[in-house]
Amino acid sequence: MSIIVNGLPSTLPQDPRVSLLDFLREYQHLPGTKKGCNQGACGACTVLVDGERILSCLALAVQYDGRQVTTIEGLGDDQGLHPLQQAFIDHDGFQCGYCTPGQICSAIGMAAEARRGVPSHVSADLTGAATLTREEVQERMSGNLCRCGAHNGIVDAIRETFTEDTGASETVA
Ligand code: FES
Ligand code: FES
């Protein structure tokens, strides 16, 4: 059984009880993905699996045999940071920084959902790509908690990076 983590094949644990979060942190030595609540309430453990955002604390590693997992360590490259990572810096989108990897992975998955036309609770139009207004971003990112005060900077960074992709007409606040 194998799993692709940040483009590299890795052997899954024999023990089927190991969560994907523990597999990444303890077996793969990738500490970027954070363990906050470990029960699906904070979003700190969010990673991308085949481009979809998931909570790795609620997933078993063995479920992801043959799948592509991307963590915060896999987003930048030798040429530089992912544009959203740079936007977080530009907008002071992190203060404690503990939630940052989950926020960034979640936002990338969220933007793809909006492009595909997946509506949120606050979407007025249920057809076509969603416009990432401030309200939409706040709603769609509500599973990722920032408790220290960087929330507005996080929303600004996400909107600056993704509003053009989704056809938003609003300027970034
Ligand atoms: S650690 Fe997974 S949601 Fe909090
Ligand atoms: S930046 Fe992580 S809790 Fe605020």
Automatic annotation (TrEMBL):
<keyword id="KW-0001">2Fe-2S</keyword>
<keyword id="KW-0560">Oxidoreductase</keyword>
<dbReference type="GO" id="GO:0051537">
    <property type="term" value="F:2 iron, 2 sulfur cluster binding"/>
</dbReference>
<dbReference type="GO" id="GO:0016903">
    <property type="term" value="F:oxidoreductase activity, acting on the aldehyde or oxo group of donors"/>
</dbReference>
<dbReference type="InterPro" id="IPR036884">
    <property type="entry name" value="2Fe-2S-bd_dom_sf"/>
</dbReference>
<keyword id="KW-0479">Metal-binding</keyword>
<dbReference type="InterPro" id="IPR006058">
    <property type="entry name" value="2Fe2S_fd_BS"/>
</dbReference>
<dbReference type="Pfam" id="PF01799">
    <property type="entry name" value="Fer2_2"/>
</dbReference>
<dbReference type="InterPro" id="IPR036010">
    <property type="entry name" value="2Fe-2S_ferredoxin-like_sf"/>
</dbReference>
<dbReference type="InterPro" id="IPR002888">
    <property type="entry name" value="2Fe-2S-bd"/>
</dbReference>
<dbReference type="Pfam" id="PF00111">
    <property type="entry name" value="Fer2"/>
</dbReference>
<dbReference type="InterPro" id="IPR001041">
    <property type="entry name" value="2Fe-2S_ferredoxin-type"/>
</dbReference>
<dbReference type="GO" id="GO:0046872">
    <property type="term" value="F:metal ion binding"/>
</dbReference>
<keyword id="KW-0411">Iron-sulfur</keyword>
<feature type="domain" description="2Fe-2S ferredoxin-type">
    <location>
        <begin position="1"/>
        <end position="75"/>
    </location>
</feature>
<protein>
    <submittedName>
        <fullName>2Fe-2S iron-sulfur cluster binding domain-containing protein</fullName>
    </submittedName>
</protein>
<dbReference type="InterPro" id="IPR052914">
    <property type="entry name" value="Aldehyde_Oxdr_Iron-Sulfur"/>
</dbReference>
<keyword id="KW-0408">Iron</keyword>
<dbReference type="InterPro" id="IPR012675">
    <property type="entry name" value="Beta-grasp_dom_sf"/>
</dbReference>
